[in-house]
């Protein structure tokens, strides 16, 4: 018998209409647990509970708020190994990567515990004599949080922690593929001293409870991370209902390698950001843009390095890359390899499904060469261990290719030239720019997000999170 896990609504664990099995992508015979599926009525109950809790929470003692968030962060950090293992088991990133993500989630709660006490306002003189002006920030009300499957603990954390810190109440709807980490987080929050109704967890499919959450009149704002298609639809619904919305979506992130790059470093950061976490990161580099002079050495070194990668069970020791998270994602990854080849690209390495001791969704990371910017493989997000190389003549062409994308999340450059690094940082059309670092891998205390088709609305994380999770009030006093 696998354990059953329920929704968390108004401070109580509540069963939904049915349960869905959460299966380990490294071993399809391993069922992590059964997770309940909420319906629209349960979603409504969660929103109502959050609405009822809002007046007291939003005006309550900020030390109590800070203490609760700090307690959550402390417990996550103390249990990072166990939570990281659960994460690897349900999502498929390696155990080490899972522990890293759990650590990030703990640190985020601790950061926002401090932010509870750091929210400031301004007083400015009025243009009218005898009048004072105060500018303050206030919480929005109930916020709907909708999260994807690829960071099942960090992304819920980086939405829940600021939402609560600034005095909002929340309803979290995690991705239905990975409810385990969200449930574990909810369980920790349930023992933190946060009053009933302030935080609610509803699990289930986007089509069943995502829509009602976005359209619920009791929800003031939606913070969404996921695909561009779903995000665009949510933005339309929020516009119709005049709700504040924040979207973090896909990427087609470029990694530029210039002739003067340190070759070993360029190869390592390219392999890391293209293929680690099975390439399932919105910030993964999927376009490696390489200048003529270093091209032959870079391609040969990439091929050699890729041959050393160990792909297998996410929980096994010594594994570099775990499985793809689901069968449908694996099929999409394999399809894009075929699409690339049909468009004229050459498959240099990988690109096939792998068999291991257990039945799972293992795939050899794929590297395509001889690709052009017009190919679908270079325009559409694959969201798997699939990268392509675009050969260019020099820096100007590399920069133009890097920006030649409908996305704008992250961009990287490998170079020893201060001139090119500085120019790239200034002219890259991306929200996050890396010099001699992988495009994936960012700090938790600074703003995260992109531009163009990757993001919509204000930034997440760090103190910039207050832009979304608060609203500004301007108050005038004549005395
Ligand atoms: P997805 O869009 O399929 O799902 C995201 C969430 O939306 C899930 O919880 C899903 O259940 C929900 N959803 C689906 N239909 C809905 C609807 N009609 N109404 C409301 N909610 C609905 O994305 P995914 O496959 O879970 O995640 C992968 C995507 O997320 C990739 O595109 C990736 O780039 C992106 N991502 C972006 C960031 C970022 O910060 N920019 C971070 C991680 C992942």
Characteristics:
single chain, binds nicotinamide-adenine-dinucleotide, 479 residues, six-stranded mixed beta sheet, 15 helices, Aldehyde Dehydrogenase, Chain A, domain 2, Aldehyde Dehydrogenase, Chain A, domain 1, alpha/beta
What does this structure look like?
The protein has 15 helices and 23 strands. It has 479 residues and is of the alpha/beta class. The chain has 2 domains: 271 residues, Aldehyde Dehydrogenase, Chain A, domain 1, CATH 3.40.605.10; 183 residues, Aldehyde Dehydrogenase, Chain A, domain 2 (3-Layer(aba) Sandwich). The protein has a 7-stranded mixed sheet with strand order 15-18-19-14-13-20-21, with helices on both faces. Helix 4 runs parallel beside helix 5. The protein binds nicotinamide-adenine-dinucleotide.
Task: Please render the helix and strand layout as text.
Blueprint: E1 4-5, E2 7-9, E3 12-14, E4 18-24, E5 27-37, H1 40-59, H2 62-78, H3 80-91, H4 95-115, E6 122-125, E7 131-139, E8 142-146, H5 154-165, E9 169-173, H6 179-190, E10 199-201, H7 206-215, E11 221-225, H8 228-240, E12 244-248, E13 253-257, H9 263-275, E14 285-291, H10 295-307, H11 327-342, E15 346-349, E16 353-354, E17 362-363, E18 366-369, H12 376-379, E19 386-392, H13 395-403, E20 410-414, H14 418-427, E21 432-435, E22 455-456, H15 466-469, E23 470-478
Parallel strand pairs: 1-5, 8-9, 8-11, 9-10, 11-12, 13-14, 13-20, 14-19, 18-19, 20-21
Antiparallel strand pairs: 2-3, 4-5, 6-7, 7-23, 12-22, 15-18, 16-17
Helix pairs in contact: 1-7, 2-4, 3-4, 4-5, 9-10
The structure holds nicotinamide-adenine-dinucleotide.
Nicotinamide-adenine-dinucleotide is lined by residues 146-151, 173, 175-176, 206-207, 210-211, 214, 225-227, 230, 233-234, 248-251, 282, 381, 383, 409, 454.
């Amino acid at each position: 018998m696998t354990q059953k896990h329920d929704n968390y609504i108004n401070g109580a664990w509540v069963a939904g209409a049915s349960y869905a099995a959460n299966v380990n992508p490294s071993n399809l015979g391993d069922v992590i647990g059964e997770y309940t599926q909420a319906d629209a009525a349960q979603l409504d109950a969660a929103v109502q509970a959050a609405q009822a809790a809002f007046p007291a929470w939003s005006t309550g003692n900020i030390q109590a708020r800070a203490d609760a968030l700090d307690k959550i962060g402390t417990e996550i950090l103390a249990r990072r190994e166990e939570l990281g293992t659960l994460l690897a088991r349900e999502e498929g990133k390696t155990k080490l990567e899972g522990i890293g993500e759990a650590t990030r989630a703990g640190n985020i709660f601790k950061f926002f515990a401090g932010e509870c006490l750091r929210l400031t306002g301004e007083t400015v003189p009025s243009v009218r004599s005898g009048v004072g002006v105060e500018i303050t920030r206030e919480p929005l009300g109930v916020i709907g949080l909708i999260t994807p499957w690829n960071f099942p603990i960090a992304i819920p954390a980086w939405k829940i922690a600021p939402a609560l810190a600034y005095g909002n109440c929340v309803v979290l709807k995690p991705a239905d593929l990975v409810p385990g980490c969200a449930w574990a987080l909810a369980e920790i929050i349930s023992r933190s001293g946060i009053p009933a109704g302030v935080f609610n967890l509803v699990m289930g499919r986007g089509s069943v409870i995502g829509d009602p959450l976005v359209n619920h009149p009791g929800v003031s704002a939606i913070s969404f991370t996921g695909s561009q298609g779903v995000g665009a639809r949510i933005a339309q619904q929020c516009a119709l209902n005049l709700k504040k919305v924040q979207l973090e979506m896909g990427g087609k992130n470029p990694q530029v390698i210039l002739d003067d790059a340190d070759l070993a470093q360029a190869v390592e950061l390219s392999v890391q950001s293209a293929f680690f976490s099975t390439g399932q990161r919105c910030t993964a580099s999927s376009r490696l843009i390489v200048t003529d002079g270093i091209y032959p050495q870079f391609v040969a070194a990439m091929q050699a390095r890729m041959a050393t990668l160990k792909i297998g069970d996410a929980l096994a020791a010594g594994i570099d890359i775990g499985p793809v998270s689901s069968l449908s994602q694996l099929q999409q990854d394999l399809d894009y390899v075929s699409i690339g080849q049909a468009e004229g690209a050459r498959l240099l390495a990988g690109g096939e499904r792998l068999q291991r001791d257990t039945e799972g969704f293992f795939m050899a990371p794929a590297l395509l060469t001889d690709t052009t910017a017009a190919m679908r493989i270079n325009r559409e997000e694959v969201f798997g261990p699939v990268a392509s190389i675009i050969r260019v003549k020099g820096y100007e062409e590399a920069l133009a290719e890097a920006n030649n994308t409908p996305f704008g999340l992250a961009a990287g450059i490998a170079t020893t030239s201060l001139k090119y690094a500085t120019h790239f940082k200034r002219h890259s059309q991306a929200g996050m720019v890396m010099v001699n670092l992988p495009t994936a891998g960012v700090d938790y205390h600074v703003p995260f997000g992109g531009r163009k088709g990757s993001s919509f609305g204000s930034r997440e994380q760090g103190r910039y999170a207050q832009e979304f999770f608060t609203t500004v009030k301007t108050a005038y006093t004549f005395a």
